[in-house]
Here is the input.
Amino acid sequence: MEATTATFPFLSYLANTILARIDDYFGAESRKAYPPLPTLNGTPSKLNEFIKEHKLKEEDILLLLIALAPHIQPTFFEAIISERIPNEGNFPDFGGVRGKQFRGIIPTGETAVFIIGGGKLEERFKVQELFNADHIFYQKKVLWLEEPPPGEPRMSGKIIMASEYVELFTTGKVSPPHFSAAFPAKLIKTELSWEDLIINNDIKKQIQDLQNWVLYNDILLRDWGMAKRIKPGYTVLFYGPPGTGKTMTASLLGKYTKREVYRIDLSTVVSKYIGETEKNLSSLFERAEDKNWILFFDEADALFGKRTNVRDAHDKYANQEVSYLLQRIEDFNGMVILASNFKNNIDDAFMRRFNAVIKFPVPDRFEREEIWRRSFPSQIGFEVDQKGVMIDLPNIAGKYELSGGHIINVVQHACLKALAKKDVFIHWNDILDGIRLEFEKEGKIFQD
Here is the structure.
């Protein structure tokens, strides 16, 4: 276990530091010496890597361990305090609070002040700076101070460590987030390849530009010194009729750049209650910050639509939501893909800020023919009529204007019909029946 091999030596260091601090505080005659910082060249661990990568100072490491300790050993702080102070209830300078379900001590800002600063006024102010917005812990959402009740000192707030960092430092890996109200997004993957995406060369070139950004933007910002000149994130609009490859492209982009793609469930994000939509989005973006994820907003019109003239309070707050989104997306340091059926549905303020706008049209007859050919299983055959004529895919592609998604639906329909007949041949009538169903869904007139 990662925690056993690497984290516990750090906890021993933290425990001895606390004991030495308590001895100093109470002026013990037999004082415990302050321990040296453990070596970082021992057993490799994610905690070691994080400390080295961000060049953390000793006070940073101590704060990290203070926040992590209760997640590893629930009685960590109680055991140390009771060793030196039997009546631990008379030690308010140490800080700490009890949780609703957690029975141990949860460290507060006061706990960090005491352990790191020792209660000296000038040191106290230095420790408080570890929770400021310009610190790496806040910027990467590693840990932060919970807002205390109104009127209570700032440092009385609980020290919260993000769950993914707790998992990373203890197990060495981070599990994908689960879909919930707090994280309204689902991981999307695909077994397909770029060869399965039948699009024209112009779109292929634009998608290659997106792939280049994902793969090389960090180098551009860091090694080429462009961080001061360009924004860290990238926003893209995919627009076009349903079934033309927007979601598939987002999935493939993630697959070939080794990035996780999360499709946002807008039904969970958007709320009729004032301020709730912004709150949901803020939580989502904060969770996604610095994760190298691609966020995919499907049917984005519901959230990123045009602002309206203000006629009532509802219009006012709807416009505020769009303005908030605009700012939040600009601040995000990853890739955001918005998908819409119609370009004109997206607010003009967003249009001006997109790094790329890619149109996904209905495929032409040659592209449709290729999609038809690729979509059928390799082990099936096609019905041959009494004249020896097999199903004519080029003719079907030319006669019926369908998107790739619609074609897949027709193929599925015809294949299931064949399986139900215990047949290995696709029948012409079943293909026509599937095409008719797709036309009816779109409200179009079907002609045999």
User: Anything to note?
Assistant: The chain has a mean pLDDT of 86. The longest helix spans residues 2-26. Residues 220 and 226 are 6 Å apart (CA to CA). The longest strand covers residues 234-239.
